[in-house]
Amino acid sequence: MSDEAHPRRNGPWTVHQTELFYENPWIRVETSKVAHPDGSPGIYGVVRYANLAIGILPIDESGHTWIVGQHRFPFDAYSWELPEGGGPKAEDPLDAAKRELAEETGLRAKNWQALGRWDVSNSVSDEKAIGYLAWGLREGEARPEPSEALTVKRVSFPVLIGMCLDSEITDAFTHLMVFAAIERARRGELPEEIGSLLRQ
To answer: What distance in Å separates the CA atoms of residue 29 and residue 48, rounded to the nearest whole number?
Structure first.
């Protein structure tokens, strides 16, 4: 934490003082007294995340995937998304992805490939997201966390694309993974067995 006596630089901003406003096991909210790039005084609030955001696009041999429906508290609205969760920063992200996929859908995957890394909301938070493509699937029993009331649905990849384009799915992380998978398939960056399913 910076203090008034020892200001620090953050790019074009000068940070005079940073205080912890709120903290729980998942997030920390900080507020800083700053000088804006033009020198005028101001404040800047940042939400810092304890975990990485982890997302998975599972694809089976017929080109179908699984989406998860749940009520999202911040929006007071129901949301369909690809399987997603949080992974401690000290944990291998792939291990977290395997755990989240199994917990939410019951699926286990033989093959995994990273789709990309993204900053989810970089104007107000430091949350980082990592997305994976998973295939060679076998089904099992889902074991969601007690705080999760989930509905799991299997849909074709073209249906998933349509749900994104029609804003039936508004979750940005899901959109990022879908776009990345399509483009990596188009570029030939995926094994043909899976790339051909995504180019339908």
So the answer is: 6
Tokens describing residue 76? 């007071």
Tokens of 151: 């509905």
pLDDT digits (tens, 9 = 90+) for 57-109: 999 999 999 999 999 999 999 999 999 999 999 999 999 999 999 999 999 99
Q: 25-43 pLDDT, tens per residue? A: 999 999 999 999 999 999 9
Interhelix angle 157-165/172-186, nearest 10 degrees: 130
Count other Cβ atoms within 10 Å, centred on residue 19: 12
- Per-residue H/E/C for the chain: CCECCECEEECCEEEEEEEEEEECCCEEEEEEEEECCCCCEEEEEEEEECEEEEEEEEECCCCEEEEEEEEEHHHCEEEEECCEEEEECCCCHHHHHHHHHHHHHCCEEEEEEEEEEEECCCCCECCEEEEEEEEEEECCCCCCCCCCCCEEEEEEHHHHHHHHHCCCCCCHHHHHHHHHHHHHHHCCCCCHHHHHHHCC
User: CA–CA separation, 32 vs 96, rounded Å?
Assistant: 32
What does the chain come to in residues?
200
pTM: 0.92
